[in-house]
Write a structure and sequence with these properties.
Helix content is 27%, strand content 24%. It has helices spanning 22-29, 47-59, 79-87, 98-105, 109-119, 129-132, 167-174; strands at residues 8-11, 35-38, 65-67, 90-93, 123-127, 137-139, 146-148, 156-159, 182-186, 190-194, 200-204, 208-212, 215-217. By secondary structure, the protein is of the alpha/beta class.
Length: 225
């Protein structure tokens, strides 16, 4: 992957709450732009409320945020909404249903605009479902098997809310990572961040674990992504 991108922030859930200290630092480092919030994954779970939560959170440290109501697939073809995505310098995809989120964005002008904006230096953040869909592999929450994500990140699947899982469930999900696939298991209120230079780090209230072939490895296993 070309390293000339913006920062990428994969959050393990419970976004826009105390402990998510990385949001302020990313916003400041990116030049303090308006944050564009996509509540797409929460389309059936009060998306306006999600935007309100995000707006309050970002305003707590001086940032302006607004919602982009791409809630159904036709919205992802709307030229005005797509133009806002294309010009955004900090886009944040919230949590909810990864299956719905993927179905709305896959192979659309909205997705193309979002990716192009990030490749041109904009910050892209996704939490829970918003992080899950960014890998080329995605854990299907309906049964735990691997399915296809949107493919922004190669050979990576994100497991959010990792600190809330039972040991048995965690072991079963981690065992899905075979071959060259990396599993990034991310706690709530915690971020796995890819810097513009391609390096990776974790930040926030919890921890991040990376697994390959069922065994824990360091963040350096992500360097080739």
């Amino acid at each position: 992957m070309n390293n000339e991108t913006g920062a990428l922030c994969l959050v393990g859930g419970a976004e826009w709450t105390n402990g998510c200290t990385f949001d302020a630092s990313l916003w400041e480092a990116s030049g303090k732009p308006e944050v564009l919030v996509l509540p797409t994954a929460a389309a059936y779970e009060h998306p306006a409320r999600a935007v309100e939560t995000a707006t309050r959170w970002f305003s707590s440290f001086g940032a302006d945020a607004s919602g982009l109501m791409i809630l159904a697939r036709p919205d992802a073809f709307d030229s005005e909404l797509v133009a806002r995505l294309a010009s955004s310098r900090f886009t944040y995809i919230g949590g909810g249903s990864p299956i719905h989120l993927r179905s709305v964005l896959k192979d659309t002008p909205a997705w193309s605009a979002l990716v192009e904006s990030w490749r041109n230096g904009a910050v892209l953040a996704g939490s829970s479902a918003g992080a899950m869909v960014l890998g080329d592999s995605m854990v299907d929450p309906r049964g735990g098997a691997l399915t296809l994500g949107l493919g922004l990140l190669e050979r990576l699947a994100v497991l959010p809310h990792y600190d809330t899982w039972s040991e048995e469930k965690a072991r079963r999900s981690v065992s899905l990572a075979t071959g060259h696939l990396r599993i990034a298991a991310i706690d709530e209120r915690t971020a796995l961040i890819r810097a513009p230079d391609g390096s990776w780090r974790s930040d926030g209230a919890g921890t991040v674990a990376v697994y390959v072939d069922g065994r824990a490895v360091g963040l350096e296993a992500l360097d080739e992504i």
